Predict the structure.
Amino acid sequence: MADEPLVLGIETSCDETGVGIVRGRTLLADAVASSVDEHARFGGVVPEVASRAHLEAMVPTIERALKEAGVSARDLDGVAVTAGPGLAGALLVGVSAAKAYAYALGKPLYGVNHLASHICVDQLEHGALPEPTMALLVSGGHSSLLLSTDITSDVRPMGATIDDAAGEAFDKIARVLNLGFPGGPVIDRYAKEGDPDAIAFPRGLTGPRDPAYDFSFSGLKTAVARWIEARRAAGEEVPVRDVAASFQEAVVDVLTRKAVRACKDEGVDHLMIGGGVAANSRLRALAQERCEAAGIRLRVPRPKLCTDNGAMVAALGAEMVARGRAASDWDLSADSSLPVTDPHVPGHGHDHVHETAKENLYS
Amino acid sequence: MLLLALDTATPAVTVALHDGTAVVASSSQVDARRHGELLLPAVDKVLSEAGLRLDAVTGVVVGTGPGPYTGLRVGLMTADTFGLALGVPVHGLCTLDALAYAADVEGPFVVATDARRKEVYWARYEDRRTRVAGPDVDRPADIAREVAGLPAVGAGARLYPDTFPDARDPEHVGAAALASLAAERLAAGEELPAPRPLYLRRPDAQVPKNYKVVTPK
Ligand SMILES: [Zn+2]
């Protein structure tokens, strides 16, 4: 088995049509077509709009990735695709394309987990993932704290949001402030000129009896909206920059505090942060500060690799090939709620590696 | 020539191979919920039955619907990607045309499939090869006058006997008919439509009316 496998990865779990190509842990191409502009006027991702856009964008995006990588599809060692979790209809477009592509080229197919891919992408930036690695994944769709000892076979959920994803809170507050969609980048921008201590917004699930690694952003969202509405009701001007900074601080304070605590509790000395919210400058800065203080090495990929993309899927696919994991079957289905504990969806044939990994997980 | 035909626009997941003279292998399964899982294995089965490999295919034809979107896209995406990987042309054909082509009806008739939400996708035909109206999506009662007195084929006709009292076979589309119709048209030098989906409806999307106020009144 090639130890530097050439793998093409397809990602369609949300609104980005991503096609990436990697050779082992080297990024060769990262082509993304986004339908984000089509969703903007709805203030959130509309699943059917995303699915329609994936169908239109897929073939040109594959072509673009091949050209960018300067490789021939014939030379691929495998085709990887996000099998879940994500929007069911959107996932199905990518899975259909990946299956047809792999089948037509006579290559093995690897249906992989979107969350594990978000972690694995860091290999393209910082080399082999340390084992174990703690991962904080934050985006409009996810807020999870995961521990992985082997990204191809063992990903354990430490904690997750019990209500909204962190990115959703950014979108919501941006809407309340009339700043448009998506909310992450614009809040980050305004926050830079604001005072993060101006308003004391609540930190969700940080009480002594609260779950140590779970998140909650719903209460914060409501508190910020109420604060703004009260100002408006009183006829006062809303200090947008201070609100943005104080809200953002509340989010990243909880995220980094819990991630660092999980690392300490589990004796893990590496933390990776992925997902679209990882592009947030304050999250990066505070995580860096707190990791340094705790003796933890922080790894955050460049922003383009943090948001959804095909390169992350290719990265995990390449690792599956390199470690000899079983390929998926041709009847692979898109699974909108694929458990985070399944880094990939092996075929029905015997796959002892996978079975063993599952046993270890619950021992 | 070797034409691969597939259609997932309706509950049928159907695949056929046509060598320019006749259909050499075909497969049809009816399962509205598993298009994604069933299609590729069906292609594989049809090829092995014919003793052929996919790279022998010289062209792909896919049913473009109309049909419920999620399933419809499985066939279109598969056809598009086959075309890319094999470097062969991909053609589209209206799914209702394939149903009409398989009908055994003299004179004018209607094709109707289930559009869900108490609606049908439908089209009117002068004969098996000639569509004269549609495809459209409507409530059966709203088109009763337009289809009155005409025989109707397709699962949509059976669902609404009040509107379509004279329902006939076939109930489901078969890729064999799709392949034969495409082969016939290509042989006649016709240009087939592009493989683009016939959604006939806008995506469901609510534009939020500002944000919801959270302060209790
Ligand atoms: Zn993601």
Notes: Chain A is about 45% helix and 20% strand.
